[in-house]
Amino acid sequence: MTNEHDRAAEHRERFGDLVFDADDLLLLEPFQIRYLEGRVPLADFGELLRAHRHVGRYLRRACPAVAPWLQQTLDAEPPGASLEECEQRVLWEIADLIVYNKAPHAYDALPHHRWDFEAVTSVAALAGTVALDVGAGTGQTAVELSRRARTVFAIEPVGRLRQFVRDRAQRRKRGNLYVIDGMAHAIPLPSQFADVIVCVRSLRNRGNAVGVGGWRLDDEVAELERVVRPGGTIVICSGWLHDEAADRPEHQTLTSPRWGYRHDAYAGYVGQLSRYHKQC
Length: 280
Ligand SMILES: C[S@@+](CC[C@H](N)C(=O)[O-])C[C@H]1O[C@@H](n2cnc3c(N)ncnc32)[C@H](O)[C@@H]1O
Hints:
Largest sheet: 7 strands, mixed
CATH superfamily of the largest domain: Vaccinia Virus protein VP39
Strand order of the largest sheet: 3-2-1-4-5-7-6
Number of helices: 13
Number of domains: 2
CATH topology of the largest domain: Rossmann fold
Order of helices and strands: HHHHHHHHHEHEHEEHEHEE
Distance between the termini: 39 Å
Low-confidence stretches: 207-214
Structural class: alpha/beta
CATH class of the largest domain: Alpha Beta
Mean pLDDT: 93
Helix content: 40-55%
Bound molecules: S-adenosylmethionine
CATH architecture of the largest domain: 3-Layer(aba) Sandwich
Shape: globular
Strand content: 15-25%
Number of strands: 7
Oligomer: single chain
């Protein structure tokens, strides 16, 4: 599996204070379960599922589409490592998915949240607007938007995160910030509803490059452009470096003639990151 070790190591570095066990898989929501294929090491996952049958039952019931793949993992040759090792390899590989449900405060405390909000205000006038934060996470961007826009909708598919954003909005007395369930390719709002749409680190390749796990950036961009009003602005702040954008499939899609997003840089925590924006 490509980058498997890098990703697990990165997650250990970020969330090393947390302890994960197989029951944490019961926290995953159906759309996250869909992302597992192509992310977790197959034989390790089979070992985990053989030892924790109830986890397999839950995953199958919550997301029936993964049933054939779960069977493949169960049929895989045992990896020859201890159960504990297999479990830990699986769980650290997908710690980024689990952490949203298990410990949103740990995600909220990551330093990458420190980025210059001018990335948004320099291309989108916010006063008096209806603004959306799509893939809102713990809501830091949504709160910033709510200080400037008239009304803000934070759209987030993970229930535990939606509650986190609601609590944050209440603590900060942001009465103009509403939190709703939805995904970038299926936003439960009418066409031409928003003046400004912002996505921070939330539009990207999900799952693997051949489409397993929900690679649907074209559908997501089409949906953003359905919901923004004519003349409105879409701003996509990515997590990848400006200088390393060219090889990324997301970059190629966004800057293609079909979508025509402008690519430039914004000041992120680790340096100049890629920003994409368009006036529709
Ligand atoms: C890396 S986090 C970024 C969160 C937040 N925007 C930030 O800057 O911290 C990605 C977020 O996108 C959400 N997400 C995952 N798949 C999504 C999808 N298909 N549509 C919308 N949001 C999605 C995740 O639940 C998570 O909250």
